[in-house]
Amino acid sequence: MLNKEEIKKIIPQREPFLMIDEVETFIPGDSATAYKHVNEEEWYFKGHFPGNPIMPGVLITESLAQTGAVAILSMEENKGKNALFGGIDKMKFKKMVVPGDTLKLEVKIIKRKGPIGVGEAIATVDGKVAAKGELTFAVV
Fold first, then answer.
1. Which DSSP string do the residues of 46-61 spell out, in sequence order?
2. pLDDT tens-digit profile of 10-34?
3. Domain ranges across the chain
4. Choosing from 8, 48, 112, 132, which is the catalytic residue?
5. What is the pLDDT of residues 80-114, one digit of tens each?
6. Known catalytic residue: 37?
7. What CATH topology corresponds to 4-139?
8. CB atoms near residue 56 (< 10 Å)
């Protein structure tokens, strides 16, 4: 299990935009599983939505992207680089994510050619799908 400090050695994101709290497993260049413990103090809940806090879908997607970045940027040849969005495809949101939830974030790299790749991404809460789709990335 990697904690936040160990995650920061792999990906460049920092608070308040580091969107994963721990990494359970990862295989460089292949896959990663991480967790985001959603708490009521998250910065985005102040405006999304007052009195009815819901984690924005774009931030669930970002959490998935950071999970995939752990898999890609942990490869020896990618250390010190960044993984940028190249596209988001087939992303569906199935369940609201609220304070108290723990998001399980799983990304499997399904295609890679040079610096470009695609990850199959799924976010669940208590085994129920919150979001899923494909994320295209470019390593720069």
1. GTS-TTS----HHHHH
2. 999 999 999 999 999 999 999 999 9
3. 4-139
4. 48
5. 999 999 999 999 999 999 999 999 999 999 999 99
6. no
7. Thiol Ester Dehydrase; Chain A (3.10.129)
8. 15
